[in-house]
């Protein structure tokens, strides 16, 4: 269900580039590139490009260092002293290829840590966990995620596991793309260059030691709400060792192209810089709704392959546009802040200056190697500081209530029964998934079930919470990709329900937590034709006061079957025509079958 074939178009697009939903299938198939061209790059081995680049960044700066346990995690050099002072730890990251984001924004005054994935691929949650563990602070932690499915899942999984261990961690999701109407989209806007402004403001707040994690989170979310970004590209980017990601006719430009090569809102005949800027700024003004009565922060971003002459022209046109529309620019930034490898494109970001204290944070010093200072085009004024939120109490760490030998034996029987059921349903689930997906949902569950069965041979079950953690690790490590992260996230979230007891109410709470986690980090909602529908059916029955599990299971099964009448709005199936979405969603059917098997096993072993 979640994995795409290893290669598409005769091996010209790598599976690793599209598995985490950063590059939609439409971006791959719209215009396949020529087989013969591999873009020339200054690299050694393309497979080592990310690690070699990180070496260069870290070795040339005294402000940052590698994490001793994971070289894909970059830390500010004084992270130990910083965290010992109880200051808020700030962590961001994602796929590489957007440099200087995010490792280049690590250092005093900005991020505490950055996590780098492969090119255009989310880092695994264990690397995010390494960053969280190394920067543990009494002040709490904040994960900044640019809004792409893979990042939300992997960072979300790390956050849930960190919280389950009794730590205070918050998640800020940055979604500022205004090019494509997100009103009908489940996943919402894509995360773009406004992330840079959020990180700089949050970094200055955290560095001062005067603000709690809740206060930093609140202002970060408010900036995200009042910011927008839109880009235009003339030529596509290319991954080291490969050719251009797609063909672009010489007389055309892509309006709203994403930073991973995703399609924009349209292609149209190329215009001059003046008209391009007018198109972008007009759209930004409509969505962000800035007026002459409210100053703005303007970020002119180079997507990686635009010359300085062109950047100067775009900057000039953007400033002229603001002057012509009586818009005051309080700060302007121009440079390569969030790139798309060597993409020949630009983006413009506008932030409504709803609070003048933001300027103080933007102007605050930082030694992060990738930061380029903001310029002042007008006299900054002072105003009352932003509203400050309240901190929360850190929970006590727990591994869950211990199981008796009888309970542990029953738990192992339940796991074995569910695994056998999933293995037996492999063909059925693949057939359901093949109608509107990539046809491997059953294989995914079967593969995971075999790995879980093997682990159970030597695994000593101590608690329900630890058992679910262990199974979630199998999904993440053995299955991998978006699917592995999704099921691992569900299980990790569900495990929190068994911290203090194991009752029927706790099982109900586990379902609710699993459903909530998938919706928060996966983006799917009830009615989107996903496994969420089965979970939601059970949860709604529980909320109505139902305590009989037969009735709860019946609600989940009906909800799973009802997905046959729904139009997919999330997952791979959302890229297919509604006409082929005539059978129940495979993931929803699997969830219902899992619940049925679990209930049957418990009943058959009742004394």
Could you outline the blueprint of secondary structure elements for this entry?
Elements: E1 7-8, E2 13-14, H1 15-18, H2 25-29, H3 49-59, E3 64-67, E4 70-76, H4 79-84, E5 89-96, E6 113-119, H5 125-134, E7 141-146, H6 149-164, E8 169-174, H7 194-208, H8 213-225, E9 227-235, E10 252-255, E11 266-269, H9 273-288, E12 296-302, H10 308-324, E13 329-335, E14 344-352, H11 357-363, E15 375-376, H12 405-424, H13 426-436, H14 441-456, H15 464-479, H16 481-495, H17 504-522, H18 531-543, H19 549-562, H20 586-604
Helix pairs in contact: 5-6, 6-16, 6-17, 7-8, 7-11, 9-10, 12-14, 12-20, 13-14, 13-20, 14-15, 15-16, 16-17, 17-18, 18-19, 18-20, 19-20
Describe the protein's architecture and organization.
- One of its GO terms (cellular component) is cytosol.
- This is Triokinase/FMN cyclase.
- Belongs to the dihydroxyacetone kinase (DAK) family.
- There is one protein chain.
- Helix content is 43%, strand content 14%.
- The chain has 607 residues and is an alpha/beta fold.
- The chain has 3 domains: 46-225, Rossmann fold; 227-376, 2-Layer Sandwich (Hypothetical Protein Tm841, Chain: A,domain 3); 405-604, Serine Threonine Protein Phosphatase 5, Tetratricopeptide repeat, CATH 1.25.40.
- It has a 7-stranded mixed beta sheet with strand order 11-10-9-14-12-13-15. A 6-stranded mixed beta sheet has the order 3-4-6-5-7-8, with helices on both faces.
- Helix 10 (308-324) links the parallel strand 12 and strand 13.
- It is globular, with a radius of gyration of 25 Å.
- The two termini are 39 Å apart.
- Mean pLDDT is 87; it is low at 1-36, 378-397 and 570-580.
